[in-house]
From TrEMBL:
<feature type="domain" description="Aspartate/ornithine carbamoyltransferase carbamoyl-P binding">
    <location>
        <begin position="2"/>
        <end position="160"/>
    </location>
</feature>
<comment type="pathway">
    <text>Amino-acid biosynthesis; L-arginine biosynthesis.</text>
</comment>
<feature type="binding site" description="in other chain">
    <location>
        <position position="110"/>
    </location>
    <ligand>
        <name>carbamoyl phosphate</name>
    </ligand>
</feature>
<keyword id="KW-0028">Amino-acid biosynthesis</keyword>
<dbReference type="InterPro" id="IPR006131">
    <property type="entry name" value="Asp_carbamoyltransf_Asp/Orn-bd"/>
</dbReference>
<dbReference type="Pfam" id="PF02729">
    <property type="entry name" value="OTCace_N"/>
</dbReference>
<protein>
    <recommendedName>
        <fullName>N-succinylornithine carbamoyltransferase</fullName>
        <ecNumber>2.1.3.11</ecNumber>
    </recommendedName>
</protein>
<dbReference type="GO" id="GO:0016597">
    <property type="term" value="F:amino acid binding"/>
</dbReference>
<feature type="binding site">
    <location>
        <position position="176"/>
    </location>
    <ligand>
        <name>N(2)-succinyl-L-ornithine</name>
    </ligand>
</feature>
<dbReference type="InterPro" id="IPR036901">
    <property type="entry name" value="Asp/Orn_carbamoylTrfase_sf"/>
</dbReference>
<feature type="binding site">
    <location>
        <position position="236"/>
    </location>
    <ligand>
        <name>N(2)-succinyl-L-ornithine</name>
    </ligand>
</feature>
<dbReference type="InterPro" id="IPR006130">
    <property type="entry name" value="Asp/Orn_carbamoylTrfase"/>
</dbReference>
<feature type="binding site">
    <location>
        <position position="75"/>
    </location>
    <ligand>
        <name>carbamoyl phosphate</name>
    </ligand>
</feature>
<feature type="binding site">
    <location>
        <position position="142"/>
    </location>
    <ligand>
        <name>N(2)-succinyl-L-ornithine</name>
    </ligand>
</feature>
<feature type="binding site" description="in other chain">
    <location>
        <begin position="47"/>
        <end position="50"/>
    </location>
    <ligand>
        <name>carbamoyl phosphate</name>
    </ligand>
</feature>
<dbReference type="InterPro" id="IPR043696">
    <property type="entry name" value="ArgF'-like"/>
</dbReference>
<dbReference type="GO" id="GO:0019240">
    <property type="term" value="P:citrulline biosynthetic process"/>
</dbReference>
Amino acid sequence: MKHYTSIHDIDNIDTWIEEAKSLKSNPLKHKELGRNKTLGLLFFNSSLRTRLSTQKAALNLGMDPIVMNVSGDAWGIEFGDGTVMDGNTAEHIKEAAAVVSQYCDIIAVRAFPTLTDKAKDESEQVLKSFIEFASVPTVNMESATGHPLQGLTDAITISEHAKVARPRVVLSWAPHVKALPHAVANSFVQAMHKMDVEFVIANPEGYNLNPQITGDTVVYHNQEEAFKDADFVYTKNWSSFEDYGKVKNTDPNWMITKEKLGNAKFMHCLPVRRNLVVEDAVLDTDSSLVIQQANNRTFAAQLVLKKLLENL
Ligand code: CP
């Protein structure tokens, strides 16, 4: 594996899950692998989990992580080819990526979508530019359309907590006041397609995800029907894909409640808005796996970094 940009980079998810569990049981086993290697983490957007867990993963492998908030602290980066740079951007990605490659053995990038320009978001301009112009491997820490470190984490967490051989997993939309990206939901769908689970999606009319990603996954517009016999309910808000980036529905009846959840386990990538997306009575009980998920972010990242280090 040269880069980790999408769930499609996982050749065998079952093997990867077992490897991640092994790292979790002995996180410092490969402490020598990353000695004298530097991981550069570049954030164009906010983060708590990704920022800390990816650094922790690097430290567990003996790497030296260095972090930059690109949007706040770096020169404005130009991504357009042939642009006359007489506006707000001061440095081109061609130089920026080449320069950072001299300081780092692996580069990890977070860059969210615009949610206003569908074509630009679908083109994954920022992530693909780093892959093109950096001379070292690139890791996707959440791009315009995918969050594959989160998707791998979620697969590990489901594997750890499944009580039946083929659990029923529901990805459910929930209300939110802001327009949110599709990246987490997309990568979760792709991860579930690689696992042996009964996977369905629940979302209101007008909120179907990109059909090129969901494929023939069954989509319910009735949440109660979707939740019947569910073992895991993975909840996430996303803005409309069809009416791109719009908030068309904030119906509180789609919030996750203890009553709706029944015996299913609740999952969410975090951060989550309490009593808007999910009620306290879910998060404050054993029904919730969100803290366990966040813990697994370290081992998903550690597995990805280990595979890239082994291939340097
Ligand atoms: N789940 C996740 O990616 O969290 P952060 O946005 O805090 O990194």
